[in-house]
Predict the structure.
Amino acid sequence: MGLHPCDQHQTITTYRSLFPAIDFSDVEEDEDALWSPTERETKEQLFGRTKKFVEWLLKRKETDIAVVSHSSFLRHLMATFCQLRNALCCTCR
């Protein structure tokens, strides 16, 4: 991700103060480790990131999870989720 300032998120420290009811404990980096001022994320990198997220999500014990993100990531997320489910012989609806 990168090139455009709108693609860079604030620090997790900032978000914790803005949204105290949200649990950020699974976020590993305080700074935006994926953002670059010189290059954008490739489609392959985006697919890898969404695949990693879906795999993490499917391992969660919770039954209700809210995912908040940009529409572009959510589009890729749904496509990735469907690909992974289809690979497991399931139906994505």
Summary: The CA atoms of residues 9 and 32 lie 6 Å apart. The chain has three helices and no strands.
